[in-house]
Amino acid sequence: MNEQRNIPNLFWPVIFIGGGSLLFLSNTGVIDPLDFSILWRLWPVFLVVIGVNMLFGRRTRWLAALLTAALGLAVVGFVYFSPIIMDQLPTPEMITETFTEPVDGADSAAVTLDFDRGNITVDVLAEPNNLFEADVTHNEESTYRATGINSRAIRLELDQIGVPQLTDLFNQDSQVTADVGLAADIPIALKVNIGAGNGELFLQDLTLEKLEADGGSGRFEISLPAGEYPVKLGSGSGGITIYTAEGSILDMKAEVGSGRIMLTLAEDTAGEVILGSGSGDITVVIPEGVAIQLDGSTGSGSVRLPDEFELVSGGGEFSGAKGVWQTPGFEQAEQQVLIRFDIGSGNLRVEYP
């Protein structure tokens, strides 16, 4: 029993010894320079190590040690052999396509961007004669459709051709990018889906009717225009950063799995916001003078609020907090912001700029 208990986890020793040896040999010129930046793409291995230790660590320490040592050797070996593998693999040919849709009598539009991966930027068009423009650099299969006359439906899809290539994961030159422009003066319902990648949506100068944005991994940064329209945002492991415009009437729902949410409210704001997080923090930045009510709970996280917030019902700002808090004079305020939140193991923070 004592021998079982004393068998160490060998993953980290192998990583440190193997990685240090490779770094030494690389710095002294014995081997070719190595790109250690690829290590961040191997982060799921650490989850596997944790799972192995949870499964075998207590009863079969020797098996856990053996498996974690093998995983450590695999990581070190991959770092060493990856340049050789990359040289042998064909580099995917990247192309740039341009898609353009003129206004041509359209008085509204529904725009869908559906990408399996990539980094997408959406902004306002400088060209008033076009409804939609997109410059997409990729090595995948693209599909573009535009239908309708007055009410236009535009859909741009990007899908992987066949089995994903290793070069797509580790070669920065094969990363998909898309720069999308939308007309400012035409009401637009926008839907953005990204499987793996980031989205920057600079929508503050658009006439927005509806927004849906969903990402698997990666982050969203979104600047919203003034007005009243529904917003639904989601992300698996990425974070969401949201900026509202002055005079907004909010109808918003944002949920993440393990990422963070940061919501910055502008002055003269009203409406309702629903925020949910599995294990990430939620931060709400509010201007002074806005009437705010918070209603929700945290599983194992805390609630941190400015001193002037009043506890209406429930209790506690620490682990497992559940209740209703609001700013003084909330009930009498003409414009109110109601924020409902549900957090698993993260924290809720409300702060001033």
Write the layout of secondary structure elements.
Layout: H1 2-6, H2 11-27, H3 44-56, H4 61-88, E1 95-102, E2 108-117, E3 119-124, E4 130-138, E5 141-147, E6 151-159, H5 166-170, E7 177-182, E8 188-196, E9 199-202, E10 208-217, E11 220-223, E12 228-235, E13 240-243, E14 249-256, E15 261-264, E16 270-277, E17 282-285, E18 291-298, E19 303-304, E20 310-315, E21 322-326, E22 336-343, E23 348-351
Parallel strand pairs: 2-6, 2-8, 3-7, 3-9, 8-10, 9-11, 10-12, 11-13, 12-14, 13-15, 14-16, 15-17, 16-22, 17-23, 18-22, 19-23
Antiparallel strand pairs: 1-4, 4-7, 5-6, 18-21, 20-21
Q: Helix count, per DSSP?
A: 5
Q: Strand-and-helix sequence, N→C? A: HHHHEEEEEEHEEEEEEEEEEEEEEEEE
Outline the low-pLDDT stretches. 162-173
Structural class: alpha/beta
Helicity, as a percent range: 10-25%
Q: How many distinct folded domains?
A: 3
Through-space gap between termini: 57 Å
Gyration radius (Cα, Å) is 25 Å
Strand content: 35-45%
* Oligomeric nature of the chains: single chain
Count of DSSP strands: 23
Major sheet summary line: 12 strands, mixed
Overall, the morphology is flat
Strand arrangement within the widest β-sheet reads: 5-6-2-8-10-12-14-16-22-18-21-20
Nearest-integer average pLDDT: 85
Tell me what you see in this structure.
- The longest helix has 28 residues, at 61-88.
- The protein folds into 3 domains: 2-88, no CATH class; 91-218, no CATH class; 245-353, no CATH class.
- The chain has 5 helices and 23 strands.
- With 353 residues, it is α/β, with parallel strands linked by helices.
- It starts with a helix and ends with a strand.
- The radius of gyration is 25 Å and the shape is flat.
- The chain has helices at 2-6, 11-27, 44-56, 61-88, 166-170; strands spanning 95-102, 108-117, 119-124, 130-138, 141-147, 151-159, 177-182, 188-196, 199-202, 208-217, 220-223, 228-235, 240-243, 249-256, 261-264, 270-277, 282-285, 291-298, 303-304, 310-315, 322-326, 336-343, 348-351.
